[in-house]
Specification:
Largest sheet: 5 strands, antiparallel
Shape: globular
Structural class: alpha+beta
Order of helices and strands: EEHEEEHHHEEE
Number of helices: 4
Strand order of the largest sheet: 5-4-8-7-6
CATH topology of one domain: Beta-Lactamase
CATH architecture of one domain: 2-Layer Sandwich
Strand content: 25-35%
Helix content: 10-25%
Radius of gyration: 15 Å
CATH superfamily of one domain: PAS domain
């Protein structure tokens, strides 16, 4: 059964719950305009930034924990190409995991990466989960979780 996650507040809803009555297309908790369909459940941690992008990798929504993780003020990352905005790099990867997810429609899990928070001069280690969109619009949901040292 499909699970839906709100990119704004990370609230999850099952497909069965969405089928009951006349559920809104968006988030029943925060009323954000859309939820993102996942093939299986996913729990975003408190320091996981959820970022929804279109098929050209432009940021549509920088939601749950995005501002504190990425350093981008609320709403200012919208429209930017996600890899450029975050300074994403995938050391040791043989390809671009975002391109792979978009091209093949596959989920990429626990991909090590580095990113550079907006306004800072140093990269930080992180892992990223990438979820392709399963609708005609394409796109993806990127879940960026910084790796804490210690």
């Amino acid at each position: 059964m499909a699970v839906f996650i709100c990119p704004s507040c990370a609230h999850r809803v099952s497909g069965a719950e969405r089928a009951e009555g006349h559920q809104p297309r968006g988030c029943p908790k925060c009323r954000f305009g859309f939820v993102f369909e996942l093939m299986d459940d996913y729990y975003a941690g408190p320091i996981t930034a959820l970022i929804a992008c279109d098929r050209e990798r432009r940021v549509l929504v920088a939601g749950h924990s995005s501002a504190p993780v990425t350093g981008w003020p609320d709403g200012e990352m919208i429209g930017h190409e996600v890899s450029a905005a975050l300074g994403l790099a995938f050391p040791g990867a043989t390809d671009d995991p975002i391109a792979r997810s978009l091209e093949w429609g596959v989920r990429v899990q626990q991909q090590p990466c580095t990113f550079r928070p907006h306004g800072l001069d140093e990269d930080r280690d992180a892992v990223v989960d990438i979820f392709p969109a399963y609708d005609d619009d394409g796109g993806l949901l990127l879940a960026l979780t910084p790796v804490t040292k210690g």
